[in-house]
Amino acid sequence: MPLLEGRNLRKTYRLGRTNTVNALRGVDVAIEAGEMVAIIGPSGSGKSTLMHLLGLLHGPDLNHGPRPELSFAGQPMVDLGEGERTRIRAREMGFVFQDFNLVPTLTALENVGLACDYAGVRGEPARQAALAALALVGLEERAGHRPAELSGGEQQRVALARSLVNRPRLILADEPTGNLDSERSAEILALLRRSNLAEGQTIVLVTHDAEVAAACDRVIRMRDGRIQPAASPVPAAETLVAGDRLLATA
């Protein structure tokens, strides 16, 4: 049984009073437990929207077309209330974003500890878990530093530690290497793969980086809100960038 499975996933966003964007157009997707999967595609292809639906950050459209289905660990998600979705996100999922999303007034330790708090773990158990997560990414000696005192690579490792601290079954990473140089990108990718292999965590990551995509077990390629056939080759990094430029000028 897949850890994540979606059918007929659609998402439309309204721009102003009259314009709409069909971000997802009836997507069917399945992610097996223990997989490390990359979602690639040019800007506007729907890859981040798909990740947000899989991570229960947004819900699929319900008001037109076939009824959507979305399940996590065999449990239907579409009709859950926001409180239950929040509980599942806090305890079962970890998130990594391109811009780190760290609280600037908190230390690295406190930023990681926020995820513990959301999952209902507080006090000394939360502190010890946060320290262990920072040690896992090699930042235990930087626990008392705030984001402004850390490099970009260190900030992303703090964000990764935050995603790992509750030992979630699923990690969703949206452009986790997008703001990093090649050396720091390789470090983050290695840490994600280590978590995947050592802990059996399922990892879904959105990326423009062909090298990152090639290091994953499977690649889902998107264009115009739809998943492309599995036989589609992984494009070179230059192709991904060129696609973005074409869309930006269209």
The CATH homologous superfamily? P-loop containing nucleotide triphosphate hydrolases
Count of folded domains: 1
- Quaternary: single chain
Helix-residue proportion: 25-40%
Précis, in short:
This protein has eight helices and ten strands.
Q: Can you walk me through this structure?
A:
- With 250 residues, the chain is of the alpha/beta class.
- It has a single domain (4-249), classed as Rossmann fold, CATH 3.40.50.300.
- Helices cover 37% and strands 24% of the residues.
- The protein contains eight helices and ten strands.
- The strands form two sheets. The chain has a six-stranded mixed sheet, with helices on both faces.
- The longest helix has 18 residues, at 182-199.
Write the layout of secondary structure elements.
Blueprint (H helix, E strand, L loop, with lengths): L3 E12 L3 E13 L4 E5 L6 H8 L14 E4 L2 E2 L5 H11 E5 L10 H11 L4 H14 L15 H13 L5 E5 L7 H18 L2 E5 L3 H5 L3 E6 L2 E2 L9 H13 L1
Parallel strand pairs: 3-8, 3-9, 6-7, 7-8
Antiparallel strand pairs: 1-2, 1-4, 4-5, 9-10
Helix pairs in contact: 3-4, 3-5, 4-5, 5-6
Keywords:
disordered C terminus; 250 residues; Rossmann fold; globular; 6-stranded mixed sheet; 4-stranded antiparallel sheet; alpha/beta; single chain; 8 helices
